[in-house]
Amino acid sequence: MPVILRSSKQIGSIDKKMTWYGVTGTVCTLENKYLFSDIGRQIETYFTNIREEWWDFGKTLSRTKHGNFAHTPTAASYNVDFGLMLAWCKLTQDVASKEELVLVVCDDPWVYRQLGQISGVNSLRPPALWTKRVIYFFRGYFSRIKLVLKFLTALIIFRTSKSAFGHGKISIIAYTHPDSKRDGFDAYFGSLIKELGEINRFLHTDGSLKLAKYLSNDSTTSLHAWGSVWYLIPLLFRRWKINKENIKEEYRWLAERSVCLENGGGAIASNAWQSHCQERWVRATKPKIILWPWENHPWERELVRVAKRLSVKTLGYQHAVIGPQQFNPGPRSNPDGFNSIPEKIICSGPAYYSQLLDWGMPADMLVIGGSFRYPPFNQNYYDSGGPVFVATSSDTQITQELMAAVEKAASKGYQFLIKIHPLYPKKIMQSKNITITQIGLRDQKGVSALLYATGASGLEGLLAGLPTLRLRPADKVAINVLPEGVEPIIFSKENLAQTLSEVEKQDALDWKTIYSHVDIEMWRKLLAIS
Fold first, then answer.
1. Measuring CA to CA, which residue among 53, 23, 90, 52 is closest to residue 476?
2. pTM of this structure
3. Do 41 and 120 share a domain, yes or no?
4. 302-357 pLDDT tens trace
5. Three-state DSSP class for residue 65
6. Domain residue limits at 459
7. Residues 319, 445: one domain?
8. For FRET with 437, which of 116, 160, 273, 375 sits at 20 to 30 Å CA-CA?
9. Got the DSSP string for 263-315?
């Protein structure tokens, strides 16, 4: 048996001298000198390679009860970790086919069982499942109760606002973003609303009610306004269900895990509420055109289906980044094919236009409209003596590992400016060499390097001509959204100071190879505004 599978509680004295690796979420106290070679790079490679397999399995899961509201069926790498756990299984399967004896440590009860079914794996009694099931069961109900109370509050706040919005309008659905303004400026669509006029903005239900209320005026309101109070009661019991008999053995335990974890949070109920509100809105107002920041999430698929049934034109805006590891924009997981894809996808530039083509999107459904969110960087940001700019991740565990690396390097004299993610704030402790800033990269002066793990910040650093370093976690994948062929400098928690000491000024990435200037006439044409 080339693979010895154990939980952290089952490790014996003999095991401590073996080559080993631990599955994400498992706390290991084994010596790093025996750690499996380059494990961070290896798990990332396996993760990248499971894309098409996840798409195909996702299509199967989409057809299960309430699977249309879950994130796992859409292959949403940022939202769920099914792909990561599948990657661990693929890695372990390959390791088990070799001759070297390797210890795999896993405390996750579902993943342990899935790994234990692989040929060449020797396992003991798996960790208990029932405690996890009970915890997630009650956690799910608490999450849904909290959501229902929020939605009830929203119905009270926005109940009268819908009367101001008539039929047949050009409509944008946008997330409630702190950078959006009351005057029509939008974090995703920039000055499009202000420049073209004749456009109403409707705010997604998954966001701050305080901010949504602030942004509301005679051309902006929340989709909460179209919700029904009677829908809230069944929402408390909205859970994703699968028939395990129809799931292949190689996915069985991972699928059950995904169902349990997604039911243990509020995402399914949140997607269901958004879908409910937007359907009632579409039926009540019959918009001429619906435009939104497109990422192929569950609520978007539901929106397109409803709109097409009612002959409403749909336009999706590929507003930011995709990259080789953000799988959800690929159409292959959509169970009804292009029936749940908008009629046109307006791309921000040539890089992601090409990627969507490669992923199976027909050319006649794509057009380049330009980038509202990422204009060119036109000044010199680099200063070898300046601080290192750090952009935190939306992922709490990854941000913690990123900050552990920063704190270690700060103790050696490096200065850091920390910009906390605006939508996913994390608690960061300041110190002599670590300072929190509210100023984004574009408004900074004199930065020596940019540090990040996930998100578009890395691309901004490369476009600004800064040495750009990307964290590669030891047991997790920091989702890479850079265009194909664009490579930052990779670092780990252990070697950040050394990596910083070796970086040099670099040429800026050519902005025109990634993004395009906004073609306002094309937008005017697509939105049928004269």
1. 23
2. 0.94
3. yes
4. 999 999 999 999 999 999 889 999 999 999 999 999 999 999 999 999 999 999 99
5. strand
6. 388-512
7. no
8. 375
9. HTSSHHHHHHHHHHHHHHHHHHH--SEEEEE----HHHHHHHHHHHHTT-EEE
